[in-house]
Structure prediction request, 118 residues.
Amino acid sequence: MSEPIIAGEYILGFHQPAATFLPEHFRTVWLDQQNGILAFMAKPRDQPETEKVHAIFFAKEKMWTQTKIKDWLSIHPDYMIPVQSPTDKTIERMESLNSTIHALTARIEKLERTKRRR
Prediction:
């Protein structure tokens, strides 16, 4: 677990790479409004039917310290379930599919040109 980042009115206690989530599917949710715990939820790219925590922020005005944040996160591990980033194999499959799509598109264009000549 990394050290919390302190800026503005909140302390960032936990986060995952934004690139692992669909950009148009972020929202904020109070995990505990009374204690000033705010989460950014999002849909992972590899599991768009689910929603996971992208980041958890702790309000400075509620007197959160790095120790208290670490303690809170340690007793709430379900909020920190990691999102899987695309693996090399997944990237290879995607590149292979892209190549197939380009080849099929080229074939279709060639067939359409031949069809127009007739």
The radius of gyration is 22 Å. Residues 86-118 form one domain.
